[in-house]
Structure formats: C-alpha cells, structure tokens
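Researcher: Re-running this chain for the archive, since the previous output was lost when a drive failed. Same request as before.
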Amino acid sequence: KLLEGIEVDLPESMISSDLEHTWQDYVRQSGAPEDILVKALEDAGRSKNHILSEWREDTKKSIKTRLMYGRIVEEEKIAATDDEVTTELAGRAEEFKMPAEELEKMFGGPQFREYLRNELVQKKLFDFLLEAASVKKGEKIDYNDLMGA
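Model: Regenerated structure tokens:
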C-alpha cells in the first residue's frame, strides 16, 4: 500500500545491477556453474535475458521498497545503539554456545556487527510500521480464493 503513492524514476544502472545480483544468487542456489545453467536454459528454449526480463518488475518494486524503507528510517531517526548490537551479539553467541568474541570473529568481525545493526534497524522499522498501521477487518473470503489457487 505504501508503494502505491511513490513515484520514483529508477536509473537503468540500478535496475541492471540489482537484476545481476539476483541472477548471481540464482546461480549460487542452483549449485551449477553459470555456463551450465545458461546452457540448460537455452536447451529449454529460454535465456538469461528472458529470465531477467521476467524478474524486472519485481526487481523495480524491491528497489522502491528498499528506498522507501531507507527514507522512513532516516526521517524517523530509527537506529540501533552499540549496546543493542552487543546485546544481540551476546544472544546469538548463547544460541551457538560460544563466546561472543569468537562468534563475531567467525562471522566477519566488524561486518557482522554491521549486519546485526542493520537487522535491528529493520526490526525497529517493521515494528514502527505495524504500530502506525491502521488495520480494518476485511470481507471473509475462502483461503484458496485469497491465494489464487
């Protein structure tokens, strides 16, 4: 709903970069080398460009969503303190049954702290959005109709 009111001209370079990142994730998840995956697509009458064009609208929506979230975080001054990051790290370390310092080092040191900070900010953002949302009871519909099954 929030995206409906947003008009953003996305640079083609941003869309292409995001599509390529998604493609690389797809290749990684497939477990096959990229050239083998491309060949398999071609054998099925498809291509990398065909796949990327199918993903294009979702990619644009994803970029707009991230930009919108970033703007809300900025406007609402949503942040995670160093103490909150340390507490989160300690909780994760307890789950892994290892010292926090060892866990932090194992997952990349300062980059892991930044990852945790971003996760905490995202959680605070979603909490903020849920708190600000007005929820109205909708009409009762069958689950299969809702899911388009």
